[in-house]
Amino acid sequence: MAAAKLVFLAAALSLFYLSGAADTATSFIKNSCKPTTYPDLCFASLSGYAQTIKNSQEQLIKTALSVSLDRAQSTKGFVRKLLKFKGLKPREYAAIKDCIEETSDSVDRLSKSVSELKEVDHSRGKDFLWHISNVETWVSAAITDENTCTDGFAGRALNGRIKASIRNRIGNLAQVTSNALALINQYAAKH
């Protein structure tokens, strides 16, 4: 009977510890997201990774970049499927094709950023600044690619469900990527 009580007590303490660690990590993410442009989206997109992030700023930016890359890949697939819609106007078709190219570029730049971030882990001194600068440049360029996609749907001639769908999807991607860049900039400023 005493052994069962000890097992129960150990399990209860473990749950209490894990709950406290999760609360600490969640608070860390929430505080880190406050200075971003879209803090609620930042927290919503990263809080599910609290156990991985813990209180590590390095893990936070790696996760933010990975989330952004995943969104970019998903968005690219979504935009690609739009080409299969029947009855697309020639201008819509051209804008979608351009958007696929822009989202492909965004995926490429975010992939390079994820790889470059691994180099930051292994660098020291000036190399750190070089690698983190590359990451900042590529993430910023990815945001430009995303915005260029939506620019292709400017004007009333392209109003409709396709335009609304793309703007919604690309807008969300640009916001997540913007948040990742803000977190990377915070990290770089502390080093």
Automatic annotation (TrEMBL):
InterPro entries: Invertase/methylesterase_inhib (IPR035513), Pectinesterase_inhib_dom (IPR006501), PME_Inhibitor (IPR051955). Keywords: Signal. The keyword DNA-binding does not apply. Residues 1-21 form the signal peptide. Residues 24-183 form the Pectinesterase inhibitor domain. One of its GO terms (molecular function) is pectinesterase inhibitor activity. It comes from Nicotiana attenuata. The gene is 21KD_6. It holds the Pfam family PMEI. Transmembrane segments: none annotated. This is 21 kDa protein.
